[in-house]
Amino acid sequence: MCGIVGIVQQKKTKIGKDIVDALTRLEYRGYDSVGIASISNGKILITKDEGKIAEVVEKVNIGNIIGKIAIGHTRWATHGPPSKENAHPHTDCSGEISVIHNGIIENFQQLKEELVNQGHVFQSDTDTEIIPHMIEHLIKKNGLTLKDAIIQTVKRIEGTFAICVVSNLDPDKIYCAKRDSPLVIGINSDRMFCASDIPAFLTQTRKVVLLHDEEFVTLSYDGYEIINFNTMKEVIRKPHIVSWKPEMAQKAGFPHFMLKEIHEQPNSLADYIRIKQPSLSKITEKLYNAKKIFLLAAGTAHYSTLTGEQLIRKYAEKPATSIISSEYESISSLIDEDTVILPVSQSGETMDTIMAIKHAKDLGATILSAVNVIGSTITRYSDEVLYLYAGPEIGVAATKTYTAQTISMWDIGLELGKISGKINNAEYTEARELFNKIPSVVKQTIVRNEARTNHIASWFAKKNSSFYLGRNLNLQTAKEGALKMKEIAYIHSEAYPAGESKHGPIALVEEDYPIVFVTPNDQSHKRIISNIMEMKARGATAIAVLEEGDKEIGELAKWKLEIPKGCSEMFATIPYVVPLQLLAYYTATRKGLDCDRPRSLAKAVTVL
Amino acid sequence: MKVVILAGGKGSDLFPLTQTRPKPMITLLGKPILQYLIEELKEIGLTDILIVTGYLGEQIRNYFKKGSDLGVCIQYANQGEEERIESALLASEEYVRNESEFLLLFGDIVSEQGLIQRTLNAFENTQADMTMALTLKGDTGDFGIVEIDSMGMVKKAGIKKADLTSMSNYVDAGCFVIRTDIFDEIRKEKSLSSAINNRIEKGAKVAAAIWEKEWIDIGKPWNIIEANRLLLSKVEESRISKNVVIGPNVELKNVVIIEENTEIGSGTVLNGPLYIGPNTYIGNNALIRDHCSIDKNSLIGFGSEIKNSVLFKGVKIYRLCYIGDSVIGQNTVFSSGVITVNTETPNAEIEMNINGEIIKTGLRKLGAIIGDDCELGVNTMIFPGRKIASKSIITPGTTIKEDYE
């Protein structure tokens, strides 16, 4: 996964600064090296180096580059380690064609050999570098124009890509093409943008055109032309206006996007509740009539599907199974026309999920998705989409999109209960009332627990290992809390069903060992008390996420994180996770870590 | 940008330490807390500073003078006998008159580095009209609570006392960027927070700069111990200055700073992080444990133990004393065998009488708070959380169960 951006404009300005600004907003997509290509005095000028954007800007003065056209890239290494040589843009032998690329070219070894045999000299280990060389080859040996050469090149590539090409052969155009990797166009009066994601140019324009797979774009300062590069037919697509405000993509006065996004949850959940989606009733109906239901997701989203799985089983009384997308093969033999697949994703670009639903769709399965990013790949493969309306999420560790995914699962669950009759009318009305109160419950949860988690964090930060235990639905909350602690605070944390914890994990418990218990006041309350006792008897220090006023557990725990009353049975998986997000955040902060950019992690995993 | 630092408050909650000094002159690791702020300002290039003084302001003026030693340019204004923040602010009006905005700092905060820069960044990044730094505070405390929206913009400032329905857990951190045209409103509204709220109602954008790191407002005596701990925890390298004499079998652990002309007697254990100022004598077989700050010209006698405490300059602790979790004013003398008891028996949260009100400290370990120029006779024993006024003379063998005023 990488971030790409391009600008072409009428006037000569400090284009380098604009590219750096845009890349900075794409830094969540990759940050191990940075590069920019521009055209100056009829020549391609490449400036690139290894390091985070701020570091590279300091080393090689990208910000001062002046011009009318430029492309920039921030890399997250796949082929070849982070280095100056492997940083994009890459060029052909003559240095006339520069290319940036996000994705993975599967047949690059073969293409590289062909090109090397033709005498091309490669500078890097990347798969990307074959693109400029092949374009050069097609121009010089086959006499193609630049545009045709690029189209022929992308046709020969197997794998995933979003590419931008700038060349002094055609110095006022950016050529782009995409397959399976994201690419969007931004339109301004005298300048055009292309980028991996909308926030890149959100401060400049809100007029956006989303590109589909197998599309090729010619971008000049005053217009764009889209064609399908297989059929060579022109595609007419009008821009739409995104409603995100530019500052929504910035962290304002918050120290990290993650903290900001935790605080945004009352608003994002309220947005989800406010916007009534016609797709909801269609989705519940199709789920209710399905023979087989599989929920598909990766990472954090998987834990939200575990809530979904249990709710479908409970309210529709159907066998529903939540599968991690990369493990799709284990169920692929079960897919048929009576199957419903419910993928859940923030970005809608998770490669494992896309591959799985493509396969399932071919076998006739119905695809009903819950996705945050409108127009993303997964939504295009879906029969119905429930949008999450959480806004852009920049922090790599998912927070507000997790609660949005989870509330969408409860939304579906309530409707299923209504259809099936498992929830009667009075219960339904009551549940909907409580549902509408979730944003204020989450707000209260943040206000009451933030300082407390900050305090606990100074102790937690010294630990190497921890357990998160819960029962029933609360196990999903424990899993998500443990994932957050791993992802950003680099503390080993393992979630376990509380009842199962004595079959193994208990052997690791020693004096002052941290164990987080997720313990709403539900029917499992009594049983989890004995689990807490068992652990305390072995010296563990208990942190309990509990309902306010729960004296029984409150007395057992060293630290209490209190959730307002009323959400212990219904909707518990939403507010109970919030203190665990805060605990991970402050623990990472205490350790001096940058929780917006955890090592080795990327926001949306768009490679397999 | 010009800077205004408010340093004129009386700090009566810090009795007896503020009997003889203004709060910002409380000295930790050899420097008044105000100096840490000025050094941070200098580091980010803000060198035009107005310090508004009031209570015992001449001590601040005499110490910092025109600021040339610190590479900054300091001017002074006087808020007179007025205690309120608003009167202090109005005293700075003249100084910032020709500016569009200025940085306002409270002179009694101790924070990890970066708070000021964070505030300036938020001001710049959000293009807001004003900015206020906010931080988290625990369940207790009487700070002004500030409510923000999810975009980090301030909705309402100066909310008193948290209750369960409060919609915020952030308090103002004593660092602001303020528009200079707010003075008329301050005059009218008579308080900074209502002036800010007034602005917000009229549509101004006030951005929050949220500070997630450590931050201490020196409001209560035990905050001095916490601030000392914070500053020592950030010291990364030991330093032993010139003409220091270290006797045989002295054990040094962790980070230790020893300033010049100080002598450490044989067999003493220095278990850092700790700071020992210049011209100090530590006798034989003493035990100085973590998080101590002992200012210049002090003396620690044979076999005494000191732990998590702040000793101002010229303190003399004779043989076989124990000082734990305490603050000792300058030139105070402990005769042999003085003990500060630092835990309740049976174990309980320690309370302190602050201006006649019994306050829970939230601490289970807290020793004594002792003013300047006291003399404590042999075998004095002081109960936890008790205070002794400056210039007190305590006869030998006394047990201090109540504050001594």
Produce a short descriptive summary:
The complex is a heterodimer of chains A (608) and B (405). With 608 residues, chain A is of the alpha/beta class.
In words, what does this structure look like?
The complex is a heterodimer of chains A (608) and B (405). With 608 residues, chain A is an alpha/beta fold. Chain A has 3 domains: 3-249, Aminohydrolase, N-terminal nucleophile (Ntn) domain (Glutamine Phosphoribosylpyrophosphate, subunit 1, domain 1); 251-423, Rossmann fold (3-Layer(aba) Sandwich); 457-595, Glucose-6-phosphate isomerase like protein, domain 1 (Rossmann fold, 3-Layer(aba) Sandwich), CATH 3.40.50.10490. The N and C termini of chain A lie close together (10 Å). Chain B is of the alpha/beta class and 405 residues long. Chain B folds into 2 domains: 2-219, Spore Coat Polysaccharide Biosynthesis Protein SpsA, Chain A (Alpha-Beta Complex), CATH 3.90.550.10; 232-400, UDP N-Acetylglucosamine Acyltransferase, domain 1 (3 Solenoid). In chain B, strands 1, 4, 5, 6, 8, 9, 10, 11 and 12 form a 9-stranded mixed β-sheet that branches. The N and C termini of chain B lie far apart (45 Å). The interface between A and B is medium-sized, with 26 and 27 residues.
